[in-house]
Specification:
Layout (H helix, E strand, L loop, with lengths): L1 H7 L10 E5 L5 E6 L30 H8 L9 E6 L3 H9 L4 E6 L6 H13 L2 E4 L12
Parallel strand pairs: 3-4, 4-5
Antiparallel strand pairs: 1-2, 1-3
Length: about 150
């Protein structure tokens, strides 16, 4: 989870920075992602607003951390892997998680648990046999001073 948290620091989203880390059955890091604009779409040009006309908000443009981690993976496959993510996946990312064969999701926060999109994620995970558990911090501090 520490690596997912560190990945989230790369996000330029002024409201919600999300990070993801995919590991294999030996906890070897396979891929990382954070929520951001697609390659070639400048973080400084595309909007980060949450409200307004659709094209003036971040929602039609931003790639979520989970999807970026999946798309960033260049290896053979993700079947049986585990996804660590700082925020419970939305329904669109959950579809990608299921399709790629990721079998476990460990999440830090579930602040949108009341939204239908999150409820849909959990229904799909349950149906597809994807285990999801909330990460419980152990009181360890991670400090990086550069």
């Amino acid at each position: 989870m520490g690596i997912a948290i560190l990945s989230s620091k790369r996000s330029k989203d002024p409201n919600t920075c999300v990070g993801a880390c995919i590991v294999d059955e030996n906890n070897k890091v396979l891929s990382l992602g954070y929520n951001g604009m697609p390659i070639g779409c400048s973080d400084d040009i595309f909007p980060w607003e949450r409200k307004g006309q659709t094209l003036e908000t971040k929602y039609p443009y931003v790639c979520h951390a989970e999807l970026n981690a999946i798309l960033n993976y260049d290896g053979y496959g993700l079947k049986g892997s585990t996804l660590y993510v700082t925020l419970f996946p939305c329904n669109e990312c959950s579809k990608a998680v299921i399709q790629k064969g990721i079998k476990k999701v460990i999440y830090l926060e579930d602040k949108y648990s009341d939204l239908d999109t999150t409820k849909a994620s959990k229904l799909m995970f349950d149906a597809a046999g994807v285990e999801y558990v909330q990460y419980i911090p152990r009181g360890k501090d991670i400090t990086i001073n550069l």
